[in-house]
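Troubleshooting: if your tokenizer reports a length mismatch, compare your output against this known-good record of 90 residues.
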Amino acid sequence: MKKIIGKVTPEEKQEIQSLFERRNGLNELARILTADNAELYEKLVRDMGETGTRFQNWWDRMAAKYQWESSDGGNWEINFDTCEIYLVTK
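Known-good structure output:
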């Protein structure tokens, strides 16, 4: 089930969209990169960790700012076209 629980500003949306796209790109790179190139592999792992942390920090900041409803086992999603935030539950 999806329920609209809020909205963010276009600037806030742009921040999470950039992190979302970066995270997806790094995940794709991780699928094709091997540990043969240790330096590049370590950079990728570090970048994935930093991006994941920044991604989660954004959700934590926005949830605190806007006091979004939450649910055990649920997660939030954003519609990048409308800036709307959804609570997704089973």
